[in-house]
């Protein structure tokens, strides 16, 4: 807000000061704002030191990342974190309207296998929490939980437990990946929205649901944060508004993995990695499919079972699984989902194909042994979605306190 | 729901099976339910194995804790987790109505000092993530983040960063304590709702706000989960309904720490530990104050500064701090809050009194150096609050996947 002060009063104020101003709100003669405050009484609640790092000029994103504790005071980070809050509420509203229960899956887990070993291990910090026990293997150090524990990479398997009891559940929480990665798309700690839905029989039902979820949430943000989105459109990405309008107005495209491979191999474009049937897409392939070819969100479905996790439901062809990755222009994969393998014997077979210990997964198998339910679910990478909504290039700039390789400041 | 079947159909169904039943919904002649389903077509979607551990009888809480992956299928845990979901939404509604932004504070932090060392340490699991670096101290092992990191014990200090930029913020996330504790009130992983409010000048404003927050959320639960609360009142705690009605209708009592010590020392009751001015309350003292003396929620305010953390605002008397613990009958402390010390020099002094390294807290001090703001905040122990709402004795039974000493199942 523009405040009109005498120059004497204005000279007393430093950038970064905290002030309380009494005055009269009037129509502004200026073109930059509709209203302004004619100050009558100016009170400084908190002085600002002259070493204040933020000045009334452009600061680079790198500089602001070095001042994590102050960057939320800039106009761009104010806008980003308001949109972040609105996105949370948008998702909440959607799931409440659709009669879901919100649950909490655990952060500390005893499984390190699902994420291929790229997990963080946890130990009690103090020596006094370590106990030495006599076992048949001699003296063994025993930690807090009595067994090795890790930070979760996904709440999905636990969410399935509750979906098989309460029908429709979602969880919103932090997940962790110990991947050494310095890309603008990866964080070691990020937030995931994961939903599990009982009595889901067909993959298309899942796709319909994901599409509604993202459309309704995006609409909520457009309705409640229009000024912030205008700001991003002006300063961050001139095509943002058009892209978001398209997202809520046009149906998402749906193609199979085979069709996608076909499109890529016919593409009039040189890829660093040739697209090969039976391998995962590289980020350049995802970008081509969503940004160049489809020019909008695209569901890729029915991947070969070898390149997807054990829990996805095997299709009648025996070769592919009933799954989807949703790719968005510029950002790439935002959602991953599938029907879950609900048939006991087929799940045992899949676990063995992946050399996973069936005993460790007995609780997961039990869900199929005692009243199994056809079901499916999906996970939304919350920060990736926010990158799409704000147009921000670097994922570290859409979360207040980013954590990644060699980066844990404040 | 009661379903009326032929005995032939009924004999085909085992406890735990997943069924789809088509039929006609009718008024029930029975007294236990108002409606029943007259089955026309019964379809078994998922058979249940005869080894299904849950039977149509009473199971102890201990037995159900040993079957974490199935206990959410019982009526009591269904009710608990529905109430848990309603409580989340109740809090969300309250904070949205009061124009707060939801934020996320980090789970991985680089500080281990605040919780007195009772923290979990994190390391990358794989050898490949460990690097050996040449430094002036010789070869040093370098971990994923380049410095030791821990699981957060509270999001408060980080929330203050955002309150000093966005005015009113709240965060809802998991926090961790590596306390070896087998009591029914402690978890190693639990959820906290933490709010920070800029431009808060008096402790009473904070108390008013906490009281509204808990009253509105409790009302929301009473309005949306009446059947589940009736169930708890009938089977768990016969005084629950009365206690909850009182909570939303009567003002919370407010007394100072000095007054509380006075009440305790005059109490016609033998305590295991004598209440002594200048020491923290024991759980027997909290119980006496809330359950016996006040018979309802009671705010204890203005504790001696020596027994409270460094960040609480020192009162004009120089001896106490502007803080509160809110005690609830049966459960004890549910909320802790305070005005935050916003005066730079006084905060430096407090850090030194606690032998804390001012350099490590420079970012926190900066919030006072650059436009300091009188502010306050509080944290609600989400599972403790749920114990109060449901009447459940053990905190492990109000969270889907409890983690505590030697307990990390499923």
What does this molecule look like?
- The structure is a homodimer of 410-residue chains.
- The first copy, chain A, is α+β, with helices and mostly antiparallel strands.
- Helices cover 34% and strands 23% of the residues of chain A.
- Chain A has an eight-stranded mixed beta sheet with strand order 4-10-11-16-15-14-13-12. In chain A, strands 1-3-2 form a three-stranded mixed beta sheet, with no helix packed on it. The first copy, chain A, has a three-stranded antiparallel beta sheet with strand order 5-9-6, with no helix packed on it.
- Chains A and B meet through helix 3, helix 4, strand 4, strand 5 and strand 6 of A and helix 3, helix 4, strand 4, strand 5 and strand 6 of B.
Strand order of the largest sheet of chain A: 4-10-11-16-15-14-13-12
Give the overall pLDDT of chain A as a whole number: 93
Report the uncertain regions of chain A. Answer: none
The largest contact between protein chains, plus residue counts on each side, is: A-B, 91 and 91 residues
* Discrete helix count of chain A: 13
Order of helices and strands of chain A: EHEEHHHEEEEEEHEEHHHEHHEEEHHEH
Structural class by sheet pairing and helices of chain A = alpha+beta
Characterize the overall form of chain A.
Answer: globular
Gyration radius of chain A, in Å: 25 Å
Share of β-strand residues of chain A: 15-25%
The count of DSSP E runs of length 2 or more, i.e. the number of strands of chain A, is 16
Biggest sheet of chain A, open or closed, and with what strands and sense?
A: 8 strands, mixed
How far is the N terminus from the C terminus of chain A? 30 Å
- What is the chains' assembly state? homodimer
| Percent helix of chain A | 25-40%
């Amino acid at each position: 807000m523009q405040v009109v002060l005498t120059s004497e009063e204005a000279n007393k104020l430093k950038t970064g000061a905290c002030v309380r101003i009494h005055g009269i709100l009037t129509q502004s003669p200026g073109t930059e704002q509709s209203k302004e405050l004619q100050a009558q009484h100016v009170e400084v609640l908190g002085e600002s030191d002259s070493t204040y790092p933020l000045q009334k000029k452009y600061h680079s994103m790198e500089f602001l990342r070095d001042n994590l504790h102050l960057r939320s005071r800039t106009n761009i980070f104010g806008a980003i974190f308001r949109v972040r809050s609105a996105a949370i509420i948008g998702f909440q509203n959607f799931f409440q309207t659709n009669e879901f229960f919100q649950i909490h899956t655990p952060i500390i887990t005893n499984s390190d296998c699902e994420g291929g070993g790229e997990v963080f291990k946890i130990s009690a910090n103090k020596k006094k929490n370590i106990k030495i026990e006599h076992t048949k293997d001699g003296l063994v150090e025993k930690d807090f939980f009595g067994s090795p524990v890790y930070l979760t990479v996904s709440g999905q398997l636990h969410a399935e437990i509750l979906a098989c009891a309460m029908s429709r559940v979602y969880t919103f929480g932090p997940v962790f990946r110990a991947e050494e990665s310095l890309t603008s798309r990866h964080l070691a700690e990020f937030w995931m929205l994961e939903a599990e839905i009982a009595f889901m029989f067909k993959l298309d039902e899942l796709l319909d649901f994901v599409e509604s979820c993202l459309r309704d949430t995006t609409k909520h943000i457009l309705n409640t944060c229009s000024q912030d989105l205008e700001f991003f459109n002006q300063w961050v990405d001139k095509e943002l508004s058009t892209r978001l309008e398209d997202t809520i107005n046009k149906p998402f495209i749906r193609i199979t993995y085979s069709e996608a491979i076909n499109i890529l191999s016919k593409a009039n474009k040189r890829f660093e990695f040739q697209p090969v049937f039976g391998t995962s897409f590289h980020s350049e392939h995802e970008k081509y499919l969503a940004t160049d070819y489809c020019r909008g969100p695209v569901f890729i479905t029915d991947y070969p079972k070898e390149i997807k996790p054990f829990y996805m439901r095997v299709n009648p062809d025996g070769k592919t699984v009933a799954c989807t990755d949703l790719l968005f222009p510029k950002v790439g994969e935002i959602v991953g989902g599938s029907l879950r393998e609900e048939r006991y014997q087929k799940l045992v077979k899949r676990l063995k194909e992946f050399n996973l210990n069936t005993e460790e997964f007995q609780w997961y198998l039990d869900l199929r042994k005692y009243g199994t339910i056809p079901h499916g679910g999906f996970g939304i990478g919350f920060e990736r979605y926010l990158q799409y909504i704000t147009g921000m290039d670097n994922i570290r700039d859409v979360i207040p306190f980013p954590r990644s390789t060699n980066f844990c400041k404040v």
